[in-house]
From TrEMBL:
<dbReference type="InterPro" id="IPR006641">
    <property type="entry name" value="YqgF/RNaseH-like_dom"/>
</dbReference>
<protein>
    <recommendedName>
        <fullName>Putative pre-16S rRNA nuclease</fullName>
        <ecNumber>3.1.-.-</ecNumber>
    </recommendedName>
</protein>
<dbReference type="Pfam" id="PF03652">
    <property type="entry name" value="RuvX"/>
</dbReference>
<dbReference type="InterPro" id="IPR012337">
    <property type="entry name" value="RNaseH-like_sf"/>
</dbReference>
<keyword id="KW-0378">Hydrolase</keyword>
<keyword id="KW-0690">Ribosome biogenesis</keyword>
<comment type="function">
    <text>Could be a nuclease involved in processing of the 5'-end of pre-16S rRNA.</text>
</comment>
<feature type="domain" description="YqgF/RNase H-like">
    <location>
        <begin position="2"/>
        <end position="100"/>
    </location>
</feature>
<dbReference type="InterPro" id="IPR037027">
    <property type="entry name" value="YqgF/RNaseH-like_dom_sf"/>
</dbReference>
<comment type="similarity">
    <text>Belongs to the YqgF HJR family.</text>
</comment>
<dbReference type="InterPro" id="IPR005227">
    <property type="entry name" value="YqgF"/>
</dbReference>
<keyword id="KW-0540">Nuclease</keyword>
<keyword id="KW-0963">Cytoplasm</keyword>
Length: 137
């Protein structure tokens, strides 16, 4: 059984999360520099069976595109070319960063670790993935 990999795409860094092979649990995977993302995904795909991707789509409170939406759409096009056999789902990513920061605080993470944007990015990807799993799509 293949895993589902979630992507919280950013211009500098991208957070990644992945399911277990049974697609029950979403776990943080890593945060990578965005310009290293496709090579990272290619290497990871060779090690693990990735069945589909979930990517956070940035929208504002009025459900309109943000400044980041165009770059995410461009990345989706690139991802489709690189992995044409994989389904790509888009998930609303509004509030995931705030939810990630709140989860780190309530989970007792040290302040120095909460300040690391890499931790927020991969936890945001995990929230995106968990949201997708709960939607039952």
């Amino acid at each position: 059984m293949g895993r589902i990999l979630a992507i919280d795409y950013g211009k500098k860094r991208t957070g990644l999360a992945v399911t277990d092979p049974l697609k029950i649990i979403a776990s943080p995977l890593d945060t990578v520099r965005t310009h290293d993302l496709i090579p990272f995904l290619t290497d990871y795909h060779q090690q693990e069976d990735i069945e589909q991707f979930v990517i956070g789509m940035p929208k504002d409170l009025m459900n309109k595109d943000t400044d980041s939406t165009a770059s995410v759409r461009s990345f989706i096009t690139l991802l489709q070319k690189k992995f044409p056999q994989h389904k790509i789902h888009q998930v609303d990513e509004r509030f995931t960063s705030k939810m990630a920061k709140s989860a780190m605080l309530s989970g007792g993470m040290k302040k120095s670790d909460r300040r690391k944007k890499e931790n927020v990015d991969k936890l945001s990807a995990t929230i995106i993935l968990q949201s997708f799993l709960e939607s039952g799509i």
